[in-house]
């Protein structure tokens, strides 16, 4: 039980047609309780009125006993019981209220000023600590809460990824957390006066970067042939995204820190704002050094505002190294026959590689005399 208010909840004793101990006089405050079974209630970061010594629960230093200052909190309504068909055990009893106040359906809410239940966050230039117990392993997101006039804080980057590691070993070789977000330059220019209903980002980021910066060696996801890779997606943005891969398949194994009972293969699964998704990717054992597998947002908004070329949420799973081995090979004794060519007959190319292997009988046509090429555009 986290971030709850347990205040002014009352338990009474029923008589023949009355209830005592539940009114304003002699109120029996019983915010939490367990009846008929053994259990341990453990609220944290909550406001609790009852005494743990009277009605036991596991106490926490994160709890408060301050009045939450609820507007219209004193809806004191006299109660009476009317037994059904004179059943003195009150089976099917009817609860009747008397003197119902006109404000019963009134403005019942927390006071925004001075209420300890309304979290105003850290004041400018100050710090504030939050504590909780991380009981479940998984991928989670933390972000700024909604406070008056500060609805833009998440869109401006006040968020992060929270990874709770399991206590047992896990079956993956590489782990990468990918925080997805967007950037609206108009919002950034005037966050306080910005109307969030007009939110229109033109930059889409992975860990705070857009392609091509995501393709720098330090920002690629380094893998090896045969590796099992755990990808932890955290959508800290305000828009949904669906991350896909080319050349390798993903298997969804957890959502919002909860393992899926039935993991499933996926091409691109929508990750809602504030949601997390864990997937597993297996790199082929035959992957050669230098192989790159694209990881991108399948909505194909792969751009950086109106700039030319690719951009946005695009990065790579990369097998480090260079194809062909270190330094490559050296080719000598290149010969063409016939040479010169009239451009109408096949030409034989022969060459000697440093390994001693000779390539021959290769037919080609000089490009300047070749037939016009045909460019196919796939739509």
Largest sheet, spatial ordering of strands: 12-11-14-19-16-17
Helix content: under 10%
Q: Give the ordered list of helices and strands.
A: EEEEEEEEEEEHEEEEEEEEEEEEE
Count of runs of 4 or more consecutive helical residues: 1
On the 0 to 100 scale, the average pLDDT is 80
The name of the CATH architecture of the largest domain is Sandwich
| Computed CA radius of gyration, to the nearest angstrom | 33 Å
CATH-defined topology of the largest domain: Immunoglobulin-like
Question: Which regions contain 5 or more consecutive residues with pLDDT less than 50?
Answer: 356-379
Q: How much strand content do the residues show?
A: 25-35%
Secondary-structure-based class equals mainly beta
Describe the protein's architecture and organization:
- By secondary structure, this protein is mainly beta.
- It contains 1 helix and 24 strands.
- It folds into 3 domains: about 1-120, no CATH class; about 140-320, Immunoglobulin-like (Sandwich); about 330-370, no CATH class.
- It has one helix at about 185-190; strands at about 5, 15, 20, 45-50, 70, 80, 95, 110, 140-145, 160-165, 175-185, 205, 220, 230-235, 240-245, 250-255, 260-265, 270, 275-280, 290-295, 315-320, 330-335, 345-355, 360-365.
- The strands form 8 sheets. Strands 12-11-14-19-16-17 form a 6-stranded mixed sheet.
- A hairpin with a 4-residue loop joins strand 2 (about 15) and strand 3 (about 20).
- The two termini are about 50 Å apart.
């Amino acid at each position: 039980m986290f971030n709850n208010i347990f205040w002014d909840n009352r338990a009474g004793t029923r008589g023949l047609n009355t209830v005592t101990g539940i009114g304003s006089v002699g109120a029996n405050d019983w915010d939490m309780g367990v009846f008929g079974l053994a259990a341990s209630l453990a609220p944290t970061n909550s406001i609790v009125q009852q005494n743990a010594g009277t009605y036991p629960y596991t106490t926490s230093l994160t709890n408060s006993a301050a009045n939450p200052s609820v507007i219209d909190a004193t809806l004191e309504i006299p109660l009476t019981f009317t037994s059904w068909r004179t059943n003195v055990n009150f089976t099917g009893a009817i609860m009747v209220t008397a003197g119902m106040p006109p404000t019963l359906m009134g403005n019942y809410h927390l006071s925004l000023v001075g209420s300890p239940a309304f979290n105003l966050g850290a004041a400018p230039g100050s710090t504030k600590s939050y504590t909780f117990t991380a009981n479940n392993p998984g991928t989670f997101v933390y972000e700024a809460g909604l406070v008056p006039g500060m609805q833009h804080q998440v869109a401006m980057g006040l968020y992060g990824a929270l990874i709770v590691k399991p206590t047992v070993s896990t079956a993956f070789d590489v782990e990468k957390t990918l925080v997805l977000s967007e950037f609206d330059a108009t919002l950034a220019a005037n966050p306080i006066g910005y109307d969030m209903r007009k939110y229109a980002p033109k930059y889409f980021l992975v860990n705070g970067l857009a392609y091509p910066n995501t393709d720098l060696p330090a920002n690629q996801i380094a893998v090896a042939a045969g590796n099992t890779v755990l990808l932890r997606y955290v959508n800290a943005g305000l828009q949904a995204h669906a991350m896909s891969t080319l050349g390798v398949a993903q298997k969804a194994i957890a959502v919002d820190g909860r393992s899926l009972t039935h993991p499933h293969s996926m091409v691109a699964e929508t990750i809602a704002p504030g949601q997390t998704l864990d997937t597993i990717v297996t790199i082929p054992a035959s992957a050669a050094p230098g192989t790159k597998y694209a990881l991108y947002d399948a909505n194909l908004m792969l751009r950086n505002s109106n700039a030319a070329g690719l951009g946005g949420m695009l990065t790579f799973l990369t097998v480090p190294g260079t194809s062909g081995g270190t330094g490559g090979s050296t080719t000598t004794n290149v010969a063409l026959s016939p040479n010169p060519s009239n451009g109408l007959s096949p030409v034989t190319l022969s060459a000697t590689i440093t390994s001693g292997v000779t390539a021959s009988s290769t037919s080609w046509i000089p490009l300047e005399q070749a037939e016009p090429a045909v460019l196919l555009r796939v739509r």
